## 1
Amino acid sequence: MAQLWGGRFTKETDELVYRFNASISFDQKFYKQDIEGSMAHVCMLAKQGILEKEEMQRIVKALTEIQQEVEAGTLEITDEYEDIHSFVEANLIERLGDIGKKLHTGRSRNDQVALDMKLYTRLEVLFTDVLVKDLLKVLLRIMEEHTETIMPGFTHLQKAQPVTLAHHMGAYFEMFKRDRLRLKDIYVRMNYCPLGAGALAGTTYPLDREYSAKLLGFYGPTLNSMDSVSDRDYLIELLSALSTIMMHLSRFCEEIILWNSNEYQFVEIDDAYSTGSSIMPQKKNPDIAELVRGKTGRVYGALMSLLTTMKGIPLAYNKDMQEDKELTFDAIDTVKGCLLLFTGMLDTMKFHKDRMEKSAGGGFTNATDAADYLVNHGVPFRDAHGIVGRLVLTCIEKNCTIDELSFAELQEISPVFEEDIYEAISLKTCVNKRLTLGGPGKEAMEQVIALEKEYLAAEWQDEEAKKWKQPSNG
């Protein structure tokens, strides 16, 4: 059992206790970050004269070799090590002897794991952001192609007013835009370096924390050593943001599942993203959409679990915080997988425009426009509302739509109606006269699409990447 401690103890840790305490099974996921942080640390130690330059160069060279061998599969990370820090340091000492033992000078596993988790999470925030942006690109393509594809808009799952597919997709575009903004906010708030905080009270060595932070692409060092090693706010924020992404995906999936049903037939999901039934040969099931919807609860669970873990922990570091990793790793992997699959499913989906328009025409979605017509001809709105209500009741009795009533039937209910009522309540008119910014009208949608193109062309990650500097060997 390779451990970084032991001088205080007179006998071996019980095997069961050791296994329960160990984290190597999951924290090996950030071996790159542990090595990257160690390189920056020794570079800083050499700059400060705490290590000789030659010692630093030998350590950096050996760390580089360890990473290369792990990635080549010639060096295996095994459970004989307690955690990834033990693995890296033990292998370094094996190669360099006493020089390798100097790696941990001025550092604790507490600030080391805080750094590793921040480096890993920061990178995953960027990866997740890219996947959300890819989804936005697909949404924008659909919006551009369907500014004239009329469909019913719903409230309470009842047909309300006619909109377009572009307008409906635009609602999800806004949701995922906000998700990207949340990811950016998390990145900006978390991007401060805990390295140098030590166990909780810093160190007596003359460390240059600003230099370490700069090497690792942080804005600067954290300002309180106790908070540095016990802060998990950024993980809670990330899990909250990931939960919101999953909530948006789940809502979208619920609609696709409905639209894919025989009753709606608005869409056809590509065979690559559907499955069949083992007993019913006619079935084509929206399993990917259902699984994404189902996995939402898994990500919610990670958020609630970490909140519960952190709620009673006094300052500073406590072993409870080891529970943050598996939860976060699983949530990140789940969200990335769901985004990839959902984007592929949406990108290959076929929309049945004729079914959508027919559905919009059959649900009295133009009733509000009929009322507006009367108002524009001098009828008080409350009276117009009642007149159109009687129109709808007549249509239900006759099993027809408002525009299928004869002009005589319309005038029998209200003599205010004129021949131009049919044009006024056509679905195309109902949609396209809604020209205020944010509405479904074609001109309004084209204005929004132009703005969304500008938004996607601006890349916040590019600005952040300019601030990054990689550790060097001197």
Note: Residues 469-474 have pLDDT under 50 and may be disordered.
## 2
Amino acid sequence: MWKTDMKRFALVCMLATLGLTASAQVGDYRSEFAIGFSGGINLTAVDFNPSLKEGKLMGKNAGIILRYTCEKYIKAICAIQLEVNYFQQGWKEVEDESSDYFSKTMNYVQIPALARLAWGRERKGAQGYIVLGPQIGFLLSESQEYTGSWMEKEHTHTHQYSHDADRSFDYGITLGAGMELSAPKLGHFQIEARYYYGLHDFYDNSSKGYFGRSGHNAITVKVGYLIDLFKSKNPNIR
């Protein structure tokens, strides 16, 4: 399982790199660097096997953005984007017949390395964009919360109630889409939605472990702001 996940992760990294390299060989040249920050909310769950009765757990995200724009190829504005984010994820167990619940929040530092393609105005106006790429994460801490009567009941799965994560390292794939509004003297304002699919299991998935699968997935909505540190003098940029 570990080797299979690593092969998938390596393939995503290779495809993203090859795509950017191929597009950087032709097109309308740019060399622009922007820095900024973002923040928002997450709706998260965990892909468990054996499965649990889950709802969505709400968490927060915040971080910094580094973006290098290299060219405009045909109509797509191509960039590489690196982020460092604080990210809350985990899961929430619920019951249909009552309001009782159990939740675990896991706090990560996440580092996405993204290919970004945008269409529209770069300096003044609006553009739509997509981002795609691999992401790694490092677990900082975890906490759990539950109603008073939850632990008094008999549940099929009890391993996760008293067991912290076996692995602090996480990796997966993230895909997003958003809108950006730019103004010459104000910078770039963004709103974006993303989906993250974790390829790694945070619980032991060997024959000695309880869960065969315990991978994160998350839906994120956030806003961001960037300012340009370096701008191209290309007269074709609008």
Note: The chain has a mean pLDDT of 87.
## 3
Amino acid sequence: MSVLLCDSNCELWFTRLRELNLDYISMPYLYNGEEYSYDLGEKTDFEKFYNAVRSGVVPKTMALNPENYKEILTPYFKAGKDVLYISFSHAMSGTFQQLDSALEELKAEFPDRKCTVFDTKSVCLGAGIQVEAAAELKNKGASDEEILAFLKDFTNKVAMYFVVDDLMHLKRGGRLSAGAAVAGTLLSLKPMLTCDSKGGLAVTEKIMGRKKAIRRLAEKVATELTGTEYSVYVVDADCKEDGDELASAITARRPEAKIVRQTVGPVIGSHCGPGTLGVIFIADKRPIALED
């Protein structure tokens, strides 16, 4: 018997996880000298977090250590359960090296148990839409092998596009050079970003100005959406009006789209910053980066 597990970087809302009967790993973040674990919106003070960032506070995210992972996984193994963990992109964090170390140690204590990890090569609801689809299959009686076979193809159809308001957040996280961040800010340049086939961040195009960026995000959904049976997630990091404008623009072009509006959590928000806007949906294939 296995348990389906995800992490809070998938960004599915806590009520949705309860509907799907899913367990999750809370990923940590730090700001104003206090450490938190993201609870998928259950008690998170989003306004406090984003106000702090806008005032100049620089939040940090942290990897879990092997002891954290052992503490999370041991109860499942003791209960005689295997784990299928659908994770956010391994290319974006060193935390999975810590997970590997924990699993090596647990193997000696629980030789008959296993934890299978599927790398979604995405983050935020790019990972979440895969978790959601897998959980629905699991709840219909699918085996781990059937779920993994489904995800192997499904992950290549996840389209995620987003733009940030302040390029300096990406610069601090090492995702953008200092020169590019300064030049882009002076030119009001809004690079449209995605998760590439390896799970890293990549630029798909460069856009001048906020309003045009919103229009382009809506156009991406309008022209590329194929999996209409799945939700179209429209996310914002403390810029609700822009997010609502984007959702309305998508509905005008694709009225059959099942739009879900959601706030970006503090862990993802620590890297992209306030004002980030994004869309996640199912297309024929993943977006192609400029350098591909």
Note: DSSP finds eleven helices and 13 strands in the chain.
## 4
Amino acid sequence: MKIINGTIYTPAYQFQKGCLDIQGTVIKEITMNPSISNEEAFYDAKDCYVIPGLIDLHFHGCVGKDFCDGIPESLEAIAHYEATQGITGICPASMTFSEDTLTHIMTNARQYYALHNSPESKSLQTDCADLLGINLEGPFLSEAKKGAQNAAFLHKPDVVLFERLQAASGNLIRIADIAPEMDENFHFIKEVSKNCTVSLAHTAADYALCMKAFESGASHVTHLFNAMNGFTHREPGLPGAAFDTPKCHVELICDGIHIAPSAIRMAFALYGAERIVLISDSMMATGMPDGSYSLGGQPVTVQGTLATLSDGTIAGSATNLMDCVRKAVSFGVPLESAIRCATANPAKVIKASSYGSLAAGFVANVVILNPDLTIRDVFLHGQKLPTHRKDKIHES
């Protein structure tokens, strides 16, 4: 099947007119002058952008469901909704709970992954985003910067505990979040970073300590500027340490609430599009009306796209990643950069080597965007999202 007449986002992070050739479930090639036989299926993407499916490596839920519900029905509903929004790869985040609860959450994800990746599951994969991993956000965080995390279940960094959770997940944990000041001699960072991306998160650590954490193996920053000390000219903190660590990726929540537009533009100027990962940090109210919800077992009130705990603390977002991409572009971020930060970059962080690009051999998860960046169609593994799902696409 060929997608013709579109403006295609190439593996070089640029747009060009051309044809995207899909063979079965994977990308075959991008060509400039396609030849189409009478028997060959094609899709006319005239006047549209053709981009890879987005990948959200940090979000908690949507449509009234939470990854931490720990039941397959919730993961199924989450994966359906994300796919309709052009987010075709997901790496949902946990919250801070007891080991028993986290083990149950990890086990549910392992079982869901096994079901959706078995030879008998092809029919299930046509309208669900692919589960690419788990982001373990908590319990190894600082109480001083806990944000919406539940302080009752915070835990000192523990390699053996992490390994038990990783085993329960079937090795699906791709990111392990940690406050470096809690990690004595950086033992956790040194050990876990051998096989998993370690992200500095929910931390009151200063610049010097963060630099030591990066030197010990950390390579990622969870929601830059949020749940950490602010950047100042005398104490640059984690944002400054990340800037001085070229191998490090940083997450940005571009929902228009967590970070001011000027700070987003500044971040792109400082770190460059090659190091930024756009995330939604969305919670279960995403795709739902205003009202009362929960996050990490704590009550949350949602008004518009603002989600808060009873004390006013921001509790995730109520915005999906595609809307965050649109917000970033509206704030002045070039579309080419915004797409890279929501596709290729997150794929690199979680080592999803066949996702995030329209390169030959990559999974054919493709989104067709209208000129105003609303969604026209979504392809999952080379198949257009079924009409009964496409009809449920909600766009802002």
Note: The longest helix spans residues 99-116.
